[in-house]
Amino acid sequence: MLALMHLVVWWKDRTARANLVFSVMAIAAAAFAVLELALMRAETPEQFGLAIRWMHVPAWVIIVSLVGFVRLYLRAGRRWLAWAVVGVRTLSLIFNFGFSPNINYREITAVRHIPFLGESVSVAEGVANPWMLVAQLSLLLLVVFVTDAAITVWRRGDRRQGLVLSIVFFVLAATADAVLITWGIISMPLTASLFYQGIVAAMGYGLSYDLFRAAQLAKQFQASEAALHESEERINLVSNVANLGLWVWDIRNDELWVTEKWRRLLGFAESEPVSFDRVLQVVHPEDR
After folding, report:
1. 132 near 64, Cβ under 8 Å?
2. Residue 127 main-chain phi, psi, to 5 deg
3. Which residues make beta-bridge pairs with 258?
4. CB 82 within 8 A of CB 129
5. 248 and 117, same domain (yes or no)
6. What gap in Å lies between CA 99 and CA 184, rounded to an integer?
7. Could you tell me the residue range of the domain that residue 233 belongs to?
8. CA 190 to CA 115: how far, in whole Å?
9. What is the pTM of this model?
10. How far apart are CA 175 and CA 181, in angstroms?
11. Residue range 165-203, pLDDT digits in tens
12. Which CATH number is 283's domain given?
């Protein structure tokens, strides 16, 4: 729902590209979670390998979207680092579909089941693919990129310091999760989707806060506009009773604010634009 809401925001305002990027990332994070669940329920090495292979697609979308969000919304992060992250991750995605069964494993020999949170889930046994380091290099570059962005945001005293620190934390956690599990250092199912959802939640909070703030400002503006209109009506009422025409001249913009009575006294139509030169035309030469 949150992704759909921000997609609508972008549809109505095509300059709101950060909202579009957020929507894409939220959808990709959901797809990653579905494939992660399929991974846990895999019964054969083939099923496990296929799930990992396709997980790299939403992972690519998540990483590219996150880089775009940091650049567009936070206006931070070095451009060359952003391109490095995207380039290396794209390269790893190409390698992923070039290897069998995937870039993570040269061979998956078996799938065994372990208990996890009260459930029996699948983990793989096999030979790790050293080319997996390319994908993990992209994660390392992503950590450097978001950390650099966090430093920039912090130094300029941006109110979004909490948001960017949350992103850094979840990126670090997701990277550690992926590295430790895929290299078999810890025996547990991949749970990176939890951290990706954390990033989505942090991003969504930042964007939603901006929408809420914009709505508040719009409401305040409408209230101010209504109060101004009421004041103008009172001034017009007083000037009509006193048979006076009132005017204020904005010299810089050559614009005049005038009352209704003033218009009638000088013969101006109700909707006719008024400038100082136009006023001089209706004033007697000796009175100018």
Report:
1. no
2. -105, 120
3. 247
4. no
5. no
6. 20
7. 221-287
8. 13
9. 0.75
10. 10
11. 888 899 999 988 888 888 888 888 889 999 999 999 888
12. 3.30.450.20
Where is 280: in which H helix or E strand? helix 276-282
First to last CA, the chain: 65
- pLDDT of res. 263: 73
Distance of CA 145 to the CA centre of its chain: 16
Q: Are 51 and 32 in contact (CB under 8 A)?
A: no
| Domain contains 215 | no
Any idea which residue has 């999760």 for tokens?
177
**Nearest C-alpha neighbor of 103 from the set 167, 52, 165:** 52
Burial of 74 (0-12, 13-18, 19+ CB in 10 A): buried
For 80, the token pair is 């060359």
The answer to whether the CB of 147 falls within 8 A of the CB of 168 is yes
What pLDDT is recorded for position 279? 65
The dihedral sign for the CA sequence 189, 190, 196, 198? positive
Provide the token pair at 235: 């001034």
CB 82 within 8 A of CB 142: no
What are the φ and ψ backbone dihedral angles of 126, each rounded to 5 degrees? 175, -165
Tokens of residue 128, six digits: 């790790």
